[in-house]
Amino acid sequence: MSDITISEGDEYTAIFHGGPFDGTTDTRTATGDAVDDEVTVYADVEGLQTAFTYKATKSRQVLDQTSVEYEYDAADSDPVDDLQDRGDRSGGFDRE
């Protein structure tokens, strides 16, 4: 992706674009000598733990601070109904 200098244990900032985490950031720790190309974040949706996948699109390093921008990947994420398509679920749980 770029010539980022990072070592295992270094922290970097993940910036999320699109999907349910749009506009949020997270401090992550490198598990090797590179930033993660793909990140999966989890959220509870209607009582289910739901996985959302984000893929790295751009990274930059300013002095000793590294940030990576991640774009939402709906195809690799768990499916979630749009709010307007969810309907009335007060009568029971209707997801399989």
What is the topology?
Blueprint: E1 11-17, E2 25-29, E3 38-45, E4 48-62, E5 65-72
Parallel strand pairs: 1-5
Antiparallel strand pairs: 1-2, 3-4, 4-5
Task: Give me a quick take on this structure.
The protein is mostly beta strands and 96 residues long. It has strands at residues 11-17, 25-29, 38-45, 48-62, 65-72.
What features would you describe in this structure?
This is Oligoribonuclease. Residues 83-96 have a biased composition (Basic and acidic residues). Residues 70-96 are annotated as: Disordered. Residues 70-82 have a biased composition (Acidic residues). Helices cover 0% and strands 45% of the residues. It is mostly beta strands. It has a five-stranded mixed β-sheet with strand order 2-1-5-4-3, with no helix packed on it. Strand 3 (38-45) and strand 4 (48-62) form a beta hairpin.
Based on CA inertia axes, which overall geometry fits? elongated
Looking at how many chains there are and whether they match, the oligomeric state comes to single chain
Radius of gyration of CA atoms, rounded to a whole number: 16 Å
* Strand proportion: 35-45%
Tell me the strand order in the biggest sheet.
2-1-5-4-3
Unreliable residue runs: none
Write down the secondary-structure element order: EEEEE
The count of helical stretches stands at 0
How would a textbook summarize the main sheet?
A: 5 strands, mixed
Secondary structural class: mainly beta
